[in-house]
């Protein structure tokens, strides 16, 4: 569920990503597709994701606990993502 006032970039909408990770399904909140603007890392590790407007995945290696990573991701992969406590600021794809 989105939290309007938890945005990490000072505006917009935020959502916890740990329960939304998938190797096959793009990110969605309340049935609406979303694209991340940035991801806050609760516990460090790797983040495997599919960038917006692309099909292949990439991996951000060694994301540090407490860091904020600017990324436009349409999917956070289950396989290859070891970082946890991920929270994302997001928009609808039409806003990009």
In short:
By secondary structure, this protein is mainly β.
What does this structure look like?
It is a single chain. The protein has one domain (4-95). The protein has 96 residues and is mainly β. The two termini are 21 Å apart. The protein has no helices and 9 strands. Strand 5 and strand 6 (58-63) form a beta hairpin. It has strands at residues 13-16, 28-29, 32-33, 35-40, 45-51, 58-63, 68-70, 73-76, 87-91. It has a 4-stranded antiparallel β-sheet, with no helix packed on it. It has a 3-stranded antiparallel β-sheet with strand order 6-5-8, with no helix packed on it. The protein is globular, with a radius of gyration of 12 Å.
């Amino acid at each position: 569920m989105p939290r309007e006032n938890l945005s990490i970039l000072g505006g917009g909408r935020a959502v916890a990503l740990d329960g939304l990770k998938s190797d096959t399904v793009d990110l969605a909140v309340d049935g609406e597709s979303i694209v991340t603007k940035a991801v806050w890392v609760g516990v460090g590790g790797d983040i495997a994701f599919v960038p917006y407007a692309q099909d292949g995945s990439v991996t951000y290696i060694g994301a540090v606990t407490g860091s904020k990573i600017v990324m436009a991701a349409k999917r956070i992969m289950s396989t290859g993502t070891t970082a946890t406590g991920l929270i994302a600021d997001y928009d609808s794809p039409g806003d990009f």
